[in-house]
Amino acid sequence: MNRAFALVFLPLLLSACAMPERGAAPLPELRSTYTENDVRYPVLYGTSRKPNGARTGYLDERGPGVQYGRVIVTIPKGHATGSLGEKGTLFSPDTRLFIAPGNIEFHSPDSFMKLAAGRPGKGSYLLVFIHGYNSSFDDAALRAAQLGYDLDVAPNDMMFFSWAAKKDYRTYTYDEATADASEIHLEAFLKTVRAAAGARKVHIIAHSMGNRPLMRVISRLQLAPGESKPFGQIILAAPDVDRDVFTHHAHNYLRVAERTTVYLSPFDVALGLSQDLHFYPRVGCGDKPQARIKEIDSVVSFVPEDFPSHTYIASTLPLLNDVRNLVLNGEPARQGAGWKAHPGYWTVGQDRPHSGPSCSSAGSFFNPLWKK
Q1: From which residue to which does the signal peptide run (predicted)?
Q2: How far apart are CA 359 and CA 238, in angstroms?
Q3: β-pairing, 257-264 with 231-237?
Q4: In the list 32, 238, 352, 363, which could disulfide-bond 284, CB 3.0-4.6 Å?
C-alpha cells in the first residue's frame, strides 16, 4: 500500500520540483523587497534538450548533445524576493516572471564563452543552477533568473543547465532515466563553463533530482597533480539521492570544491514520497542529516514553506541569505534568530514544528521504521 501511494502521489508532489563558522563577517541580511521597475535579466544556459522546429525554444525530449545560449527573463515590477510571482487579479498586478517572445537566444559554444567571459574582474564568479524533476526549459530559466537576481548575481554570470525532464508529473521514472542519460552532457557543459571562467570561481546549486547527474560527474572529474579545486561552493538543495549512494560518492565533493553544503527538511513531502517509492532514505529529507560527512555542511530547515515544501532553498529568506553569503563571501551566515548549531550540523526555524514531518532521520511518514 505504501509503495502504491508513493507511485500515485510522488510525481504530483515533486512537481514543485555543519561545520563551525570560520569567522568572516556576514553580508547585510537579505530582506524581503519588491522591485520598483521591470528588469530584463539575462541568464546563460546549456541544455541537452531537443530544440523545437521553429528554434524558438526547447522540447521535453532528449537531444543529441549540448546546446548553448542565453535567455532574457523579465522580472516584473513588484517582484518579491524569493518568489516566481503571482498571477494578477482585478485588484493586483501580475508579478510572474516571464520570457517574452524572441528572448531565447541560440549561441555557438564560442559565442557562449564570449558572453560568459565578458565580465572578468576582482571578486566576480559564475553560478550554475541545475534543476530537478518535472521542469521544462522555461521553468528552469525562470528559477535561475529568480535565484540570480535575488542573490545579486551580475547579468550573464548566472547560468543553468537544463536536462530533458518532461513537464509531466506522471513521468518520474522517465525523468530518473533521463537524468542519468544527461550526465555526459552536464559534464561537457561544466567543462565549457570552467574554460570560460578563467581565474573566476564557479559555484553550483543543484536541486532535487538534478543532484544525481552532478554527483556522478563530480565523481569522474580528474584533477592534475597540483591543480586547484575547480569549483567554489557546491550547494546540494533537497537532494533526491539515495543515502548510501551519496555516502559512497561524498568524498569527491571535497576533492573538487572549496565547500559543499547539503540543505534538507523534514517537511519535504515530495522527498518523503520518494523515500517511500524507493524504500530507502533520501539525502534531502530528514530532521537530522541522513549522511554525516566530515567537512560537508548540513543545514536542516524547519522554516515554513508552501506545500509541498520542496523549493525552500529559493523561496525562504534565511536560506537565501545563507546561500548568498556562501556565494558572495565564501562563508555562511548562520547567526541570529532561528539558527542553532548542533554537533555536526545546523538547524534554522522551529525545532518543534506544529505539524508532523513528512520524513525524519528514522524514516518517512509511511515507513517510520528505517534506522540510521
Answers
A1: 1-20
A2: 12
A3: parallel
A4: 238
Q: Which residues pair with 190 in a beta bridge?
A: none
Q: What is the Cα 31 distance to its own chain's centre?
A: 20
DSSP string, 218-281: HHH----TTPPPSEEEEEEES---BHHHHHHHTHHHHHHEEEEEEEEBTT-HHHHHHHHHHTS-
State the DSSP code for 308.
T
Q: Report the first-to-last Cα separation within the chain, whole angstroms.
A: 23
- Whether the Cβ atoms of residue 187 and residue 193 lie closer than 8 Å to each other: no
CA distances (Å), 88 to each of 74, 83, 94, 138, 307, in order? 16, 14, 4, 20, 21
| Separation between Cα atoms, residue 178 and residue 304, nearest integer Å | 31
| DSSP character at residue 362 | T
Give the closest residue to 133 by CA, choosing from 180, 66, 179: 179
Distance, CA of 44 to CA of 201 (rounded, Å): 16
Buried b (16+ CB within 10 A) or exposed e, 172-187: bebbbebbeebbbbbb
pLDDT digits (tens, 9 = 90+) for 310-352: 678 888 889 999 999 999 999 998 987 889 999 999 999 876 5
Helices (H), 286-333: 312-315, 317-329
Coil, helix or strand at residue 199: coil
pLDDT tens per residue, range 214-253: 999 999 998 888 889 999 999 999 999 999 999 999 999 9
> Kind and range of the H or E element at 63?
strand 58-75
CATH number of 2-364: 3.40.50.1820
